[in-house]
Amino acid sequence: MDSIIFDIDGTLWDSTELVAEAWNRAILEKTDLRTMIRPSRLRELFGKPMEEIFTSLFPGLSPEKYQQVMEICYQAEEDALKEEGGILYPGVAETLPALSRKHPLYIVSNCQKGYIEAFLRNSGLGSCFSGWLCYGDTKKSKGHTLLALMKQYDLRSPIYVGDTMGDALACYEARIPFVWVSYGFGDLDESCYARKVQKFSELLEA
Hints:
Helix content: 40-55%
CATH superfamily of the largest domain: HAD superfamily/HAD-like
Strand order of the largest sheet: 5-4-1-6-7-8
Radius of gyration: 17 Å
Number of strands: 8
CATH architecture of the largest domain: 3-Layer(aba) Sandwich
Number of domains: 2
Order of helices and strands: EEHHHHEHEHEHHEHEEH
Distance between the termini: 12 Å
CATH class of the largest domain: Alpha Beta
CATH topology of the largest domain: Rossmann fold
Structural class: alpha/beta
Number of helices: 10
Shape: globular
C-alpha cells in the first residue's frame, strides 16, 4: 500500500442536514417548486453523481428548469458551506493527521467542483491531503476518477476508504482494494469489501 484515498460524505463527515436546509430554502425562495428534501433522502443519494441526485429529487422537469434548479441549489450549498461545514465523524480529526504521517492521503468524490475544498477548509484538515479529484473535474464514473487520480499522482497500490456500494463498484473498476466504513450511508454485504471498520480510528490499526 503506497497511499490511502478517501470518500467524503458518509466517510469523513455528514453534511446532509446543512445541504438539505440550504437547498430547501433556495427552492422555496427562488423557484415555484414545493419539493421539500429530507436529510435522510440525501443520505440515500449522496455518493452518486450530482446529476443523478437531482434527477431523483426532481423527476419530470424540463432540461431548462432542471438546470435552473441545480444552479440555484449549488449556489445555496456553496454559500452555506462558507459559513459552516458538515459534522465530522468521531475520530476523523484525530486519525487523519496520524495517518498522513505514515501514508500520502487523497480524496476522490462524486461531488461538484469546490465541495472538496470546502471540506478541507471547514474541517481544518487540508494539510493532511496530498491531492484530490472529483466528478466535477472528470464528468465520468468514480472508478474513472480514481484511475485519473492514480495516474496524476503516480499511485501504484492505493486503497480506497468509503461507505456505499457505489464506492465498492468504483474500486472494482479501478482494481484497488475497498475498505468499508460501516457507520456511513451504505449497507454492504461482506463480499463487497476487502476490510470493514466500524470506527474511523480503526484505520490506524488496520
